[in-house]
Amino acid sequence: MMRASLSMFVTLALLLCSPLAAAQDFASQRAAAAELQEMCDQDAGSLWGVDLCGPLIVVDVETRLAWASQADGQGVLHRTAEGWIGVLPQDVVLANTSVEWAGVRWTMLIGPLPDDTVERRVLLAHEAWHRVQAEIGLAPQAAPPNAHLDTERGRFLLRLEMRALDQALRSRGAARWRAARDALSFRRARLREFPEAEVSETALDRNEGFAAYTGVKLGAGSAAESFASSTLLRFDGRRSLGRSYAYATGPAYGLLLDSRGAKWRTRLALEAAPDLLRRVLGGNLRQRSLADAADRYRGEAIEAEEAERAEQDRFWIQRIQAQFVDGPRLILPVTERGSGAFDPNQVRTIPDVGVYYGYREVTDFWGQLLASEGALIVANPDRVIVARPDATGLAGPGWTLTLAAGFRLNGPDLSGAYTLGEGSVALR
Fold it and tell me: How many Å apart are CA 77 and CA 92, to the nearest integer?
């Protein structure tokens, strides 16, 4: 503990001793804070009924050096001419998110921030919404990984929905609302074929769709519809959509509701945005021909692409199973006290195996696991698995484990697995 504290002090001292380095390091953070305040002043609480601005903190993942707009409640951050600066403790999860730390609810961003002005403003407004979402009655809900969106049919219907939303945003008049109804038809068909999907999709729409809408609405301004359209095009065909699609569909549905003149944001605790749009547009979606609608968005080409993807996935799943289930591996328990970060664009459900994360951080009672080249989360009981540990069991390709004091590993056993040692402190 003494060594860690000294290291943090030395790092901070070196950075603060050079005014030039400080100016170079923190000018973008100060500019971002000013941009966020400008958006909040222009909005004046009109979007959600509250001021989206609040404490902002920007963190470098590798050094954990943080710039903040105000002091924390534990004295970790130190005031300088550039702002409040300090090194965050290891138990603070770093991500673009809202975080409660040191007595303050922060809007947290990971640096370096985007160079593109619009992308940076969209990110700022997006994460600022997360800081107030509970305050406006839209507290985060547990969002399952939407396993149906890793299936051939689920992806087909989602991609049709996204293409129809893109067409709606790029159209005007009757053409806009015909495309919007097509999107709603594709969504309705998907929820009928996967009845359990409504709960999981609604949770992600609530957690990320509204944040993404807020980011685009405030961050892109007059170019919001064009930005949302471009986002839909970027997402079309992505390998992983189950934990990320709402970043594209959320802005589209919100902006379409806005363009219809609907007063919809106060009703989100009761209905999902697509359901509100369906109600506003009226009409009977069941009378619409799904096949005819699909032809308008090159449905046959999407079907062919998804069939090829499904074939490729069979080989990928075999490889993941060989590495994370059958091969040498480290297995750690995940408890309700655990926390962590992941990239929603690299999450894929593997039937009867678990959920694969291309990037995953897990902090739990046993310490911290950082995996940048793959980790598997399995349930009943909840565990995180990483592949091919070295002789110590503490590292492998793209991952490292830092054990908390008093803990050790057992292994490898006959199957090549390392596990938390039975002699470790507080195996609870």
Answer: 14
Residue 342 DSSP symbol: B
Strands (E) located in 20-122: 56-60, 65-68, 78-80, 83-87, 97-101, 104-111
Pairing, β 395-396 against β 78-80: unpaired
User: What pTM did the predictor assign?
Assistant: 0.88
Which H or E run contains 400? strand 399-403
* CA distances, 210 to each of 87, 206, 294 (Å): 31, 6, 27
Share of the chain above pLDDT 90, in %: 83
CA distance 267 to 264: 6
Looking up tokens 């300090």 gives 86
- Strand-pair partners of 36: none
- Which DSSP state fits 272? -
Residue 421, by phi and psi: left (phi above 0), alpha (psi -120 to 50) or beta? beta
Averaged confidence pLDDT in the chain: 90
Q: Which of 29-38, 248-257, 414-423 has the lowest mean pLDDT?
A: 414-423
Average the pLDDT over 81-107 and give the result.
Answer: 94
What is the end-to-end Cα distance of the chain in Å, rounded?
A: 23
Peptide bond into 251 cis (omega under 30): no
> 């097509």: which residue's tokens?
182
The pLDDT score that the predictor gives to residue 18 is 39
Measure CA 291 to chain center.
33
Is residue 10 scored above 80 in pLDDT? no
Report the half-sphere exposure of 10 (CA within 13 A, side-chain side): 6
pLDDT-derived band at 14 (thresholds 50, 70, 90) equals very low
Q: Is the pLDDT of residue 15 over 80?
A: no
Region of 402 on the Ramachandran plot (φ > 0 left; ψ -120 to 50 alpha; else beta): beta
Alpha-helical segments (H) within 170-298 = 173-193, 197-204, 210-219, 224-235, 246-259, 273-281, 290-295
Residue-wise over 214-238: b if at least 16 C-beta within 10 A, else e? bbbbbbbeeebbebbbebbeebbee
